[in-house]
Design goal:
single chain; mainly alpha; 113 residues
């Protein structure tokens, strides 16, 4: 839940800085990554629930693989947003730190399934 709250807060903060057009009339390319981190963080919880409720080991492993992909994408989008021209990028290491903690917890949790 902390990851969801953090990603939404950071995205809102970044959107304010990145929503302006560049001097040549183009939009900032990093603005799309702000929506991606919200979508990916929101999809973490349903994948966890689906993996816990699934009885078939094959389907359970698919949910776990999806969870791995989501965390990897979320982490890489945080790295991309750190290159943006915004003051909000200073908060992204906090989110990446939470993702590192989540990855450690996920490894232990996967062993219990």
């Amino acid at each position: 839940m902390d990851i969801i709250v953090l990603s939404r807060s950071i995205s809102t903060y970044l959107n304010q800085d990145l929503s302006y057009l560049n001097a040549d009339g183009s939009e900032d390319e990093h603005i799309y990554f702000t929506g991606d981190i919200i979508q990916q963080s929101t999809n973490l919880a349903p994948q966890i629930i689906n993996a816990e409720q699934e009885r078939c080991s094959h389907k359970k492993s698919k949910h776990l693989e999806s969870l791995d992909r989501l965390t990897t994408r979320l982490y890489s989008n945080c790295r991309r947003l750190e290159k943006s021209n915004s003051n909000g990028r200073d908060y992204l290491p906090i989110l990446r730190g939470e993702l590192k903690k989540f990855r450690k917890l996920k490894r232990h949790w996967m062993m219990t399934l």
